[in-house]
Amino acid sequence: MPIFSTENLRTVALLGHGGSGKTTLAEGILAKSGMIITCGSVERGTTVCDSDPLEKAVQHSLRAACTHFEADKEDGTEVRVHMIDTPGYPDFVGQALGSLDAVKTAAIVVDATAGIQLMTRRMMDWAKERNLNRILIVNKIDAEHVDLPKLIEELKEAFGNEVMPINLPANNGARVIDCFAKDHGEADFLSVEEVHRQFIEQVVEVDDEAMEKYLEEGNADPSTLHGPLTQALREGHIIPICFVSGKTGAGVDDLINVMVRHLPNPAESNDPLFTDAEGNDIKLIPDPELPLVAHVFKVVNDPYIGKVGVFRIHQGTMRRDDLLFVGDNKKAIKVSHPMILQGKETTEVRELVPGDIGVISKIDELVFDSVIHASHDHDNIRMKPLSFPKPMYGLAIAPARRGDEGRLSDILNKMLSEDPTLELEHDTTLNETVLRGISAQHLKSVLERMAAQFKLEVNTRTPRIPYRETIAQGAEGHARHKKQTGGAGQFGEVYLRIEPKERGTGFEFVDEVKGGAIPYNFIPAVEKGVREALTSGYVAGYPVHDVRVVVYDGKSHPVDSKEVAFVSAGRKAMLDAIAKAKPTLLEPIVDIEIVAPDSAIGDITGDLASRRGQVTGTANMAGGMMIISGVVPLAELDGYAARLNAITQGAGSYSMELSGYAPVPVQKQMELAANFQRKDEDD
C-alpha cells in the first residue's frame, strides 16, 4: 500500500442528523473513487460502514466507521482522504463527538427533504467549538418537493452569512456545477456567475494580497486561491455548501474534488487542542521526524482479537515494531501491525504519518482519549476534553444467571471503555448497580451488544432517582463515643460545626483543633466518620452534598482513645449537626430538548406542565417541526419516551442533560422520608 505524505492527506467526518444519508453518501464516495466495485445498501445491510450485525438489524449507524479513499488533485498528485461515517441520532452522540478530534474538517450532512434538524445544529456548534473546518453537504437534492433556495436561506439564517454554495444543482438535480472554478452555466436556481463572484470575494477577504489583486483585475484565478481558501475555512470565514444525491451519485464527483483540492491538509489546519497536566496549551507540529504523538478516539473490544484502538497521528511517524507508551505508563507497548481501516476490514501498512488515521490491536492499555507517544516528555499531555452530554437515563442491572457477577463487571468495563457517554454507578446501600446512558435506545443497543457479542444475559429494572440531601443553614454538632467492656475501652469526643456551600461545590473538611484536643493522628478517623454520615444521609438516606465541616474541639483518653472511637464520634457529631441545620432533599433537574411536529406542541407543553416541567423556549424548524426546550425533574420522566411517541405518532424525539439540583416539594420529601429508617447507634 502506498505511503502518503502529510500534505497529501485529508481527514473528514460525515456528521448530521440520523436519516440524512451519511452512510449512503459514504458508499457513493467509495464507489466513485474506485475503492469498492458497487454501492451497497443500508436496507440490505451491505454497506462498508454499517458492518455490525446490530447496525444491519436497525438499519442505521451505531458506531463511527473509518474508511479511506484516494483521488487526484488537478496536477495529478494522488491524495488520500480518511473519512469517518458517524451515527446521527442523539442516542449515539458519543461516537460522533469522539470523531471530532480525529479530523480537521467536519462535513455536516443536511437532508434536503427535512432541512435543519436537531443534530445539524449541534454538530455545527460542536465542530466550531473544536476549531474545525466546516462544510455543509445538502443531500437528496433529487427528491420531490424540495425547496433548495429556501434551504440555503435557512442555513444562512442559522449559521451566518459565511454559509455559501460552492456548487449548484443543474438538470433538475441530475448533476452539479462547480461555482468556484466556473463563472458561467445553467443551474436549477440562482446565477452561477453571481454565486462565483460572491464566493471568490468571500475567500479573498482574508488575504490582503489576493484582495488587492482582485480589486485591480476585477476577478481572480481560482487555482491561485488555495491558500486564502484554506485560511478562510480555518477561520470560519467561509462554510461551503455542496449539493449531492448519495442515492443517484449526482454531485459526488464534485464533492470528492472539494475534499481533495480545497480542504486543508493537516499541516494547513488549526492546531490540535492538546494541554499539559496544568492545563497549558501544547503545540504539536505535524512533522514526521519529531517524536510520535497520537490520540485514541475510538476503542472496540472484540471477543476474538481483543482490544482495538483507533487513533489519529498528530506528530511523528508510527512504524512496525516501534516501542511506544500509552499515557503516563512506564511500560512500553510494541506496535506489531499498524493498519488502516475500510469499515471492518484492515490493511497493514509500513508506517503512518501525521494526518493518518490508524489502528492497532491487542493492547490492553488503550482506552478512549488516551495518548500514544514515543517520548516520556509527552507522558502528561492530554487532548482538551470534549463536552459530552451527561448520561441521565439509567437501568439497574444484574446478571440473569447466578455466578455471572464477575463476567458482568468485566463486560460492563469493556462497554465503558468504548463509549464516553456511558457511566456505571454502584449504590452500596441498596446493592444496586446502575448503568446510565443517553436514552432508552442507547442502553438497549448496549445490552443487545452484550448479549450478541459476549453471550451475557442480564435482568434490568428502573433504578431509584439519584436524590441528594443538603443543609439550609449552619449548625454545631457534638458527640461522645464511650464504651467500657471490662478491658481497654473506647473513647472519643468531637465538636464540629457545619455550613452550607454553593450548590455543586462539594464537600470540604477543615481541621481547626488547637492544643492537641484531638491528637492529629485521629483527625483522619473523624473525617472518615463525617464522610460516613454524609454518605448515609439524614432525611431519606441519600448522600449529603455541598457542606463545609470544621472540626474545632474534642477530647481524648490516653489509653481508651482509638481510631474506631473517633470514627463513631465523628459520624454522630455530624448527624447531630445536620439535624439542626434544616436538612432538605434535592432532586435532579434536567434540561430537555424535544423535536416534534408543530401540531403536537400544545399536547407536549401540557404534558410537561403535568410533570412539574417548564418550557424555556421554542424554535421553528423546516418541514413543520419545532424544538421545545425546557426543564423538568428527572423523577417525572419515567416512561416519557413512550408518552412522547404516543403524542407525536412516533415523529418526536428528545434528549436531556443534567441541569442541576433543586429542592423536592414538601409532600414528596415527606413520602421519601417516611420510607427511610436511620440506624441509630448505641452510645
Automatic annotation (TrEMBL):
Specify one Pfam family: EFG_IV
User: Keyword tRNA-binding on this protein?
Assistant: no
Presence of keyword Nucleotide-binding: yes
UniProt-listed GO biological process terms: ribosome disassembly
Q: Keywords in alphabetical order, please.
A: Elongation factor, GTP-binding, Nucleotide-binding, Protein biosynthesis
Q: Which residues form the Tr-type G domain?
A: 7-267
PROSITE patterns from the xrefs? G_TR_2 (PS51722)
Q: Which GO terms describe its molecular function?
A: GTP binding; GTPase activity; guanosine tetraphosphate binding; translation elongation factor activity
Q: What does this protein do?
A: Catalyzes the GTP-dependent ribosomal translocation step during translation elongation. During this step, the ribosome changes from the pre-translocational (PRE) to the post-translocational (POST) state as the newly formed A-site-bound peptidyl-tRNA and P-site-bound deacylated tRNA move to the P and E sites, respectively. Catalyzes the coordinated movement of the two tRNA molecules, the mRNA and conformational changes in the ribosome.
- This chain's protein is named Elongation factor G
Q: Which gene encodes it?
A: fusA
